[in-house]
Amino acid sequence: xxxxxxxxxxxxxxxxxxxxxxxxxxxxxxxxxxxxxxxxxxxxxxxxxxxxxxxxxxxxxxxxxxxxxxxxxxxxxxxxxxxxxxxxxxxxxxxxxxxxxxxxxxxxxxxxxxxxxxxxxxxxxxxxxxxxxxxxxxxxxxxxxxxxxxxxxxxxxxxxxxxxxxxxxxxxxxxxxxx
Length: 179
Fold this sequence. Notes:
By secondary structure, the protein is of the alpha+beta class. Helices cover about 35% and strands about 10% of the residues. It has a three-stranded antiparallel beta sheet with strand order 1-2-5, with no helix packed on it. A hairpin with a 6-residue loop joins strand 1 (about 30) and strand 2. Helix 1 packs across helix 3 (about 125-130).
């Protein structure tokens, strides 16, 4: 009796000839967690929007994301689509760069970049680099720039805030006061 080799699956040729089987054109459909039908297949579609970190991103049109063909439920997980993580990260970084450049351009009409760098405690020339697309800003910096560009009068408020000392907090006593 021959020993059974569990390392080979049914899809692999046993005789060692790799060209014996043609590659399958279609993958087996998976079960949809939403409707329960076996209709989930990787699908590329332009214009899809996905939440990633703190923003909604438009996915690249050629990115294959498991989608149910019956109920159109998308399953954008890193396990089901390994190429999803790098694609989302690259799209996210490009979006941060684009939004920072737009906010810096808008703020440039009201305030100089040098003054803004001083108020936000940024190194000299950093906003110029970001505006040119030579760096990737943090999401918190992009958020700050967006808020300031929406209400440029807040620049004066920010300057006043940093110019004044912070009032000391009242000391809490360790002993209880009697009524």
